[in-house]
Amino acid sequence: MYYSKSPIYFLFFFISIANLLAQKPINVIFFIGDGTGLPQISAGNYVNDNHTAFEDFQYIGLSKTHSYDNLVTDSAASGTAMSSGMKTHNRVIGLDENKNPIPNILELCQSNGYKTALIATSTILHATPASFFAKVSSRYKYEEIAFQLTKSEVDYFMGGGKKYFTSRKDNRNLLLEDNTRTYVSSIGEFEKSSAEKIGYFTANDDPKTILEGRNPSLSKMLLATLEKVALQDSPFFIMVEGSQIDWGGHDNDIDYVLSEFKDFNESIQAALDFAKKNKNTLIVVTGDHETGGLAISGGEMENNKIKTVFSTTGHTAIMIPVFSYGPHSEEFKGIYDNTQIFHKFKKSLAFD
Ligand code: MG
Ligand code: ZN
After folding, report:
1. Closest ligand to 130 CA?
2. Is 75 a catalytic residue?
């Protein structure tokens, strides 16, 4: 009793309260390589002087990607598992197995004062980015997904798919109807705009491939977004998708896979550089599933050359690595269902 009344205890009490108050909320940069498993990462490593940005990560986990009723997931079910913590049917976005809408991590962030951003090298309505704002029974309802994006609280987005807003079956022009957001069509306009919410269309339809000269790079898009969010007092959650690694896998085209992987890897390096200066940034990198059943069957180390074989033009069910860096990165170690990624984010951000 004597000690509990000692002034020193009151001092400790006030110091610990002050520490709690001073704790900065955590920023998140979440990378999803569509169709990117260990074969794609290994291939990208061997053609890049035996190195990738992935080596700088602090913890590695493995996620089990099967969907609610299919051993082999698609990007909709896998995206929903990671964004919303529930296994659902292939092709379904933001709804559970009974088609009930479920909250996603971006929405939790928005109601906790976070700025949120989505960046993709597909259309912004494609299954992976759509899993962070849409609730639809089919991933192919692009016009409905576009409508839901305009009604969402996403602060910044970058990706293709303008035509689903402007050339619609219902003849509406969603860009004219949306008075909450400024829409731009170049990275320069994005950088110059001081609007609170900005949509940047990188293409009318699907963006070009890197091999066709896609510009800006994923790292340039991420850096422009970081510039916007870093200027504000609020913490942020950014989802970055290397969308077309998957498309290269479906095409069984290794040059397509490797060029898209390189763009993805460089954007991860840019995020790591940012997080090393801004210590309260958690980076998580994973894939939604593997595509192509890729194997590396030979090659020459010294010439950055690999010999590869694809075993399917579809997805595979192999477990997918999860790399984490920064505060709470230890949460992401181990072997778990892809749904746990949502719960691990929730726990790391103290949203319970
Ligand atoms: Mg995708
Ligand atoms: Zn795919």
Report:
1. 1
2. yes
